[in-house]
Design goal:
The protein is mainly alpha-helical. It is built from 4 helices and no strands.
């Protein structure tokens, strides 16, 4: 990233084959409702069940998805509104 390039707003973006920023952001915006509908009716015991192979339980997967969506929503917003966005690193293990 050239340090002399101003980070100016270019909202909404208009790249060919896109709907501006909406084709990036809208799927993230709809995910919480879709996830809630998919998990409706499961018990706490089902949500905490871990398979013998040590994989994640439903509760851990849902939490990871929430964290990931929050971070990626912020990043996509920055990418769609700035010419040279600076995307901060994050510690995925710390979020767990």
């Amino acid at each position: 990233m050239p340090s002399d390039t101003p980070n100016v707003f270019t909202f909404p973006r208009q790249e060919p084959g896109t709907q501006g920023h909406l084709d990036l952001v809208e799927p993230l915006r709809s995910l919480p409702d879709a996830l809630a509908a998919a998990l409706k009716g499961i018990t706490d015991a089902q949500a905490r069940f871990t398979a013998e192979d040590g994989g994640w339980c439903i509760k851990e997967i849902a939490g990871h998805m929430r964290d990931s969506c929050e971070i990626n929503h912020q990043r996509l917003y920055m990418m769609s509104t700035q010419t040279d966005p600076v995307l901060d690193d994050y510690d995925g293990e710390a979020l767990v």
